[in-house]
Amino acid sequence: MSLQRRIAEKDGVREGARSRQHKIAPAKTKSKKAQQSLETRDRLLDAAEELFANFGLYGVTVRNVAEHAGVDSALIHYYFGTKRGMFDAVFARRAEAINAARLLSMDEYEEQAGPAITVEGALRAFLHPILENDRLADAGWRNFSALVALANNTKEWGGEMMSRYFDSVIHRLIDLLRKAMPDAKPVDLYWSYQMLSGSLMVIQASTGRIELLSNGECRSDDVDAFSDRLVEYAAAGFRALCQPDRM
Q1: CA nearest neighbour of 60 among 84, 93, 89, 81
Q2: In terms of Cα–Cα distance, which of 68, 129, 69 is closest to 99?
Q3: How far lies 139's CA from each of 50, 146, 175, 227, in Å?
Q4: Exposure winner among 14, 28, 75, 196, fewest CB in 10 A?
Q5: Is residue 209 a contact partner of residue 226, using CB atoms and an 8 Å limit?
Q6: Which residues have C-beta within 8 Å of that of residue 166, sequence separation ≥ 6?
Q7: What element of type H or E holds 240?
Q8: Could you report the per-residue pLDDT of 172-216, keeping only the tens digit for each?
Q9: How many Cα atoms sit within 13 Å of 128 on the Cβ side?
């Protein structure tokens, strides 16, 4: 069963319980107008996501996005207020979904592993939803991955945005790793994660660098080739840095 389906089922159980408790009436079917509004908003987000991924926040105008989506630019102001508001909405849309998937993956791993949590297991649970999206090779996901890489390399606003959307998930991973390495110092865990994040961002950026460097022997879209290597490489780094008697 896919992570997305498990998340939906988990949310469905919670929603059902709330409905029974408070006797909430079934939601009415969305009107045709409301559905069209949602579709227009999604089309704008898709267009903005692609343009921002290719040209950055400052290389794209409201008019560029409107023309790419085939709508009037006034609709961008209606839905998002400003260009930055639209950028934030683009980022939030997939961040919320991938965060839910990663939290569920780590929760399920911890439940299955019990007291036998390992560094490799924690990292694999954290990375699995990202790697599965990479494997699907969805253009929208690729654009989002490029945006995350952009945020990680933008001093002006990137750090705040990454913290706002991803810190809760990172702290969940750190908690799991502490259980695998109870004697690890917090500073070593954080530095190790920073290095894992850098490795992941280079892979997610898909710039073609590995193809050129390896003369075509490696491909940045070959998830089967890099997924296990990334976990093993990162786990070895975590263990090396987090040894209590390292220094």
Answers
A1: 84
A2: 129
A3: 9, 11, 32, 19
A4: 28
A5: no
A6: 95, 99
A7: helix 223-241
A8: 999 999 999 999 999 999 999 999 999 988 888 778 899 999 999
A9: 21
**Cβ proximity of 238 and 181 under 8 Å:** yes
Burial (0-12, 13-18, 19+ Cβ within 10 Å), 35: exposed
Confidence of residue 26 (pLDDT cuts 50, 70, 90): very low
pTM of the model: 0.79
Who has greater pLDDT, 116 or 203?
A: 116
Give the per-residue pLDDT at 38: 85
Tell me the pLDDT of the chain averaged across its residues: 86
**Domain locations in the chain?**
93-241
CB contact at 8 A, 100 and 166: no
**Counts of helices then strands in the chain (DSSP H, E):** 11, 0
Rounded Cα distance, 82 and 73, in Å: 11
Give yes or no for a contact between 105 and 128, defined as CB atoms under 8 angstroms apart: yes
- Cα separation of 113 and 3, whole Å? 18
Q: Is the pLDDT of residue 1 over 90?
A: no
Q: Tell me which architecture the domain covering 93-241 has in CATH.
A: Orthogonal Bundle (1.10)
Q: Which amino acid is present at 65?
A: V
What is the 8-class DSSP label of residue 245?
T
